[in-house]
Design goal:
heterodimer; A: alpha+beta; four-stranded mixed β-sheet; two-stranded antiparallel ribbon; 7 helices; 26% helix; B: alpha/beta; six-stranded mixed β-sheet; five-stranded parallel β-sheet; 28 helices; 31 strands; 13% strand
Chain lengths: 266, 940
């Protein structure tokens, strides 16, 4: 019998992923459209949010790329005004919360070292949803199963880059081997810092804590929180030792109380 | 792309990142190389977000801004002296009868107030032959704008113009230019444009620092410059600056005209404009007396420069269209061509239609019910047609005008034919886009059902018409009978669909030798003896042999990419690139080398195809009386011009002045600070009718400036994009962008309904309150508010909304008849609109207000305000009104509180207070009462 739930060895030790350079994003949303078209995802509704140019709001079971708009207009010093756009996506974490929480083994790490949800295995329990520290994975209403970016698994199988990276006009989103992308990201940081710009990388160099490096990482012109990204993401397992310890302590305490209450009655 | 080589990219009148996102990759690449990017715009857009510097500007004041830079460059002697001296007409001495706007309070010499037109005969040089104004040859060549552009030609070669290479003569073009712009100081720029002085100076300094031998700067523009009553002069201002700085014809320099629709460049090249034939050959005009080929030829054949070849291109065009029927003895079938009798552009056309003068209309890729200015009028005009044919992907608003809100289908006689068309992937053909790049695309899939390409429709229509007229003996039917029409596909499947072979059409456009049938490789092979045919000479060489369609090529490199598709003319990527080398033929610098003279090989060579006779030495001197290209020296790069130099004083071309001048838009809340007696372009075209009412200058009922624009997420009237759920969800509802200050002033909350009103109609939209728009301070104290409305919505599609183009009036630039959708006035109020949002546009106008063929009106009366003499009084009274209507805002109080949109959104309490205060102020001032009830009722 084929074991559908086992993690497949990555074709390349560090796999494939995205490098999203926020300083190059022009907020055109071509990535959102290309993603929905390729993956045949439905539109999510037609309502003006009133929140800058962002009308899709957040990543969801049917929006696997989402461009966030951060408006910081400064009337006193107009030169400090900024309007930043960031194309958000599943981070394909080294230690993925969703994968950790999945009881059915539907979520696996595939041969490209990407975190992948097998739609035919997922039973829609939803444990993965609160387990993702980035709020990425969600239940797709039509099928009742969990869904998120597949890093265009089907396109990668055919040697094609994912739809979003393909459509990005300014190469804000680039796809490739993670090790090569990391080199490129570090070069880009040097280039921007030489131009006097204050930027940082998010999701590499092992400073992400429990989730480890991200296979989809970012170059940010500000603190991660500005873009709704946690600077210290946590996993369900982060709390495990403390949870076990407190459980054990509670057991001992309850046992002691029980012993005190009931020991003399036997 | 050449942009990558720029050291400075200045974007003005364009939202580059949003409307040309693919081209913007070259901007970000230039930035990575260290180039500076400046964006000058009324709104802080996604382009501003990526720019290094953002400069706010009042919409409609661009000439003041660019003129200010020109003044800075001239006052500081920062221009590129060697370039200016040799490659421009700076040293040419101008006719002593020429008078500047500075002399005549806002108009140039030759202005006739009665007709509202210029006699351009004084806009020329002083000639060595001494003949001036009354010379009979001149009389015949230059009368008004209806005459063709004037060169210095005589039949004996170009007349030698007087030059002063020391630039000391007071009438040198550069000295006149200096005088013309002397008042465009940084302070004046600030008070006209609202751009902070220090920001303006930053732009000036950036231009100067990034121009010269070692560096180049590029000026990028799009519709934000074009859609004004001074549209052409906006661009001329930039051309003048780039000539002074020596940036034109050089890598990373020049002016980048960003084309906004797929193949819009192609449709000007292959001439969808009413006054052009393919390849920029002017349509014959009765007004210009072009009733036979000789008169036509005389008017357009330059003595010197490339246009001396005009007869070859005109004859080859007529041969391409009429084949054997075009002969020397019948004027090459010149009589077959339709003739212009006036302005037949979009706007006159729709007025004629409104007055019942047009029976039928065919719309290809156009949706005037949404895209047309004063859209209510355009919809009403379509009700007066007998038939309307619409070919589109979906049932557009134009196809459905008869069932729009407020229309009564039982009273509309128009028969509408809606034909399905093929999408871009369902047909083969070429796109000609920015940089004149012609790219072929294959058909990927067959179109569904009865959907067909535009070429199929035209081909089939032509075939049927030819069949219909085949047996006619009436001479007037000869153009159809004699028209060449051989595009039948050799592919059986395509033939079944009725689709022609697009490469056969391309062959005709490219041109061929009639005897041998061989494709021409270059337009230099075209002849005026009837032995060659070419449908558009500028495309000659793009299909040099049956197996070489160069527009299919897709090999790029990191710069010029000569093997990526094909650019007209002759795959030259950078026009006038002779200017990239110094007069001796050496590159101005190693860093900016593009083409150069190879002495050993005795030819021009380099990275690009030389835009110059390849064997013409830099030391070549034109002989006395020489014509054609031999009439130009070897250091004259601007080969299309009579004298081979860039014209900072415009002898040819424009009908509204040889220098760009700041005029206010037709509708403006302020008085022209430079020329109070000449508020607007004095020769603009307007239509003074009750179905096209204009707002008075500074009309307190309409105090805010509106710009309409596009978003990345939608295309034009939304005819394609609002039907596509994936795009519709990204920008689902029509909105209006207003500043927090204006939101407070008018009591409008973010996300709530608001109504924008003009005398033409009103629309409702959702308010998007954003700090990205700021009130502008003009000079000392006066604030103006600008509001921005994306123009994509209409009543058909997955997402629907009112059409913003209901708001603007029809008014036009005098050169090219483009409208002024980028700057008009309006009011805004909270809440939803009334039912009759198209205003009185559907009423018939009385005969007295109509003009023949919808001809524009000019001169005499201006607007509805009365005679020319009374305009000044009108302006004065407007001044007092606008001064009173200026809101007394403590802007500092806002700015300390506003660091983002959200806080202002919650400031609704403030809004009520301010509204009450405004109400009180209004009550105190009787002239202000209308502000409280801003609607058409009070206007009527």
């Amino acid at each position: 019998m084929i074991d559908l739930t086992n993690t497949v060895a990555a074709a390349d030790s560090d796999g494939y992923g995205f490098f999203t350079d926020v300083t190059l994003c022009i907020g055109c949303k071509a990535c959102e459209v290309a993603c929905k078209q390729w993956n045949e995802l439905p539109a999510d509704g037609y309502r003006l949010s009133g929140e800058s140019y962002d009308n899709t709001g957040a990543l969801s079971g049917t929006s696997w790329r989402h461009v966030a708009f951060v408006e910081q207009m400064d009337r006193e010093t107009p030169a400090d005004s900024r309007w930043m756009m960031m194309s958000d996506v599943c981070k394909h974490c080294t230690n993925a919360g969703c994968l950790e929480a999945c009881p059915t083994g539907a979520i696996i790490r595939n041969e490209f070292n990407n975190v992948y949800v097998q739609p035919d295995v997922c039973n829609g329990c939803g444990y993965c949803v609160p387990s993702c520290p980035f709020g990425v994975i969600a239940i797709q209403p039509k099928y009742g199963t969990a869904a998120k970016c597949t890093l265009c698994y089907d396109r990668q199988k055919d040697g094609l880059e994912p739809a979003c990276a393909k459509s990005c006009p300014t190469d804000s989103i680039t796809f490739g081997k993670v090790s090569e992308l990391k080199d490129r990201a570090r070069d880009r940081v040097e280039q921007l810092q030489a131009q006097g710009k204050n930027v940082q990388l998010y999701g590499l160099d092992e400073n992400m804590g429990a989730v480890g490096d991200l296979n989809a990482f970012f170059l940010l012109p500000d603190r991660p929180e500005v873009f709704g990204l946690p600077s210290k993401p946590v996993l369900p397992s982060t709390f495990q030792p403390a949870a076990y310890t407190s459980g054990a302590v509670a057991f001992v305490a309850l046992a002691a109380v029980a012993w005190r209450l009931f020991a003399g009655r036997a | 792309m050449d942009l990558e080589k720029s050291d400075l990219i200045v974007i003005q009148g364009s939202n580059f990142a949003e409307n040309h996102p693919v081209g913007f990759r070259f901007v970000t690449r230039a930035q990575a190389r260290g180039a500076k990017v400046i964006h000058i715009d009324p709104r802080f857009t996604r382009t501003s977000a990526l720019a290094d510097t953002y400069v706010p500007i009042r919409s409609g004041s661009d000439i003041a801004f660019t003129g200010g830079i020109i003044n800075y460059v001239l006052q500081n002697e920062a221009y590129f002296k060697e370039y200016v001296l040799h490659y421009t007409n700076a040293s040419f001495i101008v006719d002593e009868n020429f008078a500047d706007t500075e002399d005549l309070d806002g108009v140039f010499s030759g202005f006739d107030a009665e007709s509202g037109k210029y006699d351009t005969k004084t806009w020329r040089y002083e000639y060595e032959d001494g003949l001036q104004g009354e010379d009979a040859a001149w009389q015949s060549r230059s009368k008004t704008e209806d005459a063709p552009a004037e060169g210095g030609s005589t039949t004996k070669g170009t007349r030698k113009a007087k030059r002063d290479m020391t630039l000391q003569h007071p009438r040198c073009a550069i000295n006149l230019l200096k005088k013309h712009f002397a008042r465009y100081t940084p302070e004046m720029v600030e008070s006209i444009c609202g751009s902070p002085k220090e920001k303006f100076l930053e732009v000036c300094q950036a231009f100067v620092e990034n121009s010269g031998r070692e560096k180049t700067a590029v000026y990028c523009y799009a519709m934000g410059w074009a859609q004004h009553t001074v549209g052409v002069q906006n661009i001329r201002a930039a051309a003048t600056l780039q000539a002074l700085l020596g940036n034109t014809g050089r890598p990373g320099g020049g002016i980048m005209a960003l084309r906004g629709h797929a193949s819009i460049q192609g449709s000007t090249d292959i001439a969808t404009l009413y006054d052009l034939l393919p390849g920029y050959i002017k349509m014959p005009s009765i007004e210009r007396g072009e009733t036979d080929f000789a008169a036509w030829k005389k008017n357009w054949t330059q003595t010197c420069g490339w246009w001396s070849n005009w007869p070859k291109y005109a004859v080859s065009l007529l041969k391409a269209w009429y084949g054997d029927a075009a002969r020397a003895d019948n004027d090459w079938a010149f009589d077959y061509l339709p003739k212009n009798t006036g302005d037949h552009s979009h706007q006159p056309l729709f007025f004629t239609m409104k007055d019942g003068g047009i029976e039928g209309l065919t719309l290809f890729g156009q949706n005037p019910a949404v895209g047309g200015q004063n859209a209510g009028l355009q919809r009403a005009a379509m009700e007066r047609l007998d038939y309307l044919v619409v070919r589109d992907l979906f049932e557009t608003e134009s196809a459905a005008f008869w069932k729009r809100e407020g229309a009564d289908p039982t009273k509309i006689k128009t028969e509408v034919f809606f034909l399905p068309c093929a999408g871009v992937a369902e047909k083969a053909g070429t796109f000609t886009n920015t940089m004149r790049l012609v790219q072929f695309h294959e058909k990927a899939v067959q179109p569904p059902d009865d959907a067909r390409s535009e070429t199929q429709y035209c081909y089939e229509l032509g075939k049927r018409m030819k069949a219909l007229y085949a047996n006619s003996t009436d001479p007037k039917d000869r153009p159809i009978i004699d028209m060449t029409w051989d595009y039948e596909s050799d592919d059986e499947q395509e033939r079944k669909l009725g689709e022609p072979d697009v490469e056969k059409i391309m062959r005709e456009i490219n041109g061929f030798d009639i005897a041998s049938g061989a494709h021409v490789k270059n337009f230099t092979e075209l002849k005026d003896d009837g032995s060659t045919a070419a449908g558009a000479w500028i495309y000659s060489g793009y299909f040099p042999s049956p197996d070489q369609n160069l527009t299919r090529r897709r090999k790029g490199d990191d710069w010029v990419s000569p093997e990526w598709a094909w650019a007209w003319p002759l795959n030259r990527r950078n026009l006038y690139n002779r200017a990239s080398a110094d007069p001796d033929g050496k590159p101005w610098s190693e860093r900016k080398a593009l083409i150069w003279w190879d002495e050993a090989a005795a030819k021009w060579t380099g990275h690009d195809v030389p835009d110059f006779p390849v064997g013409k030495s830099p030391t070549f001197k034109a002989k006395e009386g020489a014509t054609g290209m031999d009439g130009h020296d070897g250091d004259a790069p601007f080969i299309m011009q009579e004298y081979g130099v860039a014209e900072i004083f415009g002898v040819q071309g424009t009908v509204d002045g040889p220098f760009p001048t700041h005029y206010e838009p037709k509708e403006s809340p302020v008085v022209n600070a430079l020329y109070p007696r000449t508020q607007t372009n004095p020769v603009l075209k307007e239509w003074r009718r009750r179905d096209n009412p204009y707002h008075a200058i500074g009309d307190p009922k309409y105090p805010y400036i509106v710009s309409t624009y596009r978003l990345t997420e939608h295309h034009l009237s939304g005819a394609m994009t609002r039907w596509l759920p994936w795009l519709a969800e990204l920008q689902p509802e029509l909105f209006v962008e207003i500043s927090p200050e204006l939101a407070v002033e008018r009591g409008i909350r973010n996300g709530d309904w608001a109504t924008v009103t003009t005398a033409r109609g009103e629309i409702e939209l959702k308010a998007l309150v954003t700090g990205r728009i700021a009130p502008l301070r003009l000079g000392k104290g006066r604030f103006v508010h600008q509001i921005g409305i994306p123009m994509h919505w209409g009543s058909q599609g997955v997402v629907v909304g009112d059409s913003p183009n209901v708001l603007p009036p029809l008014v036009a630039d005098p050169n090219v008849s483009i409208h002024e959708g980028k700057a008009f006035t309006a009011n805004i109020r909270p809440g939803r609109r009334s039912a009759a949002h198209e205003g009185p546009m559907n009423q018939d106008v009385p005969q007295s207000e109509r003009t023949p063929l919808g001809a524009p009106q000019r001169g005499g009366k201006i607007g509805q305000a009365g005679a020319v003499e009374s305009v000044f009084e009108q302006i004065l009274s407007a001044q007092s009104v606008t001064a009173a209507s200026t809101k007394v805002h403590d802007l500092a109080a806002y700015s300390s509180d506003i660091d983002g949109r959200d806080r202002t959104v919650n400031a609704i309490e403030d809004a009520h207070q301010f509204r009450d205060a405004a109400q009180m102020a209004d009550d105190e001032n009787a002239t202000q009462n209308t502000r409280a009830t801003p609607s058409r009722e009070t206007q009527a």
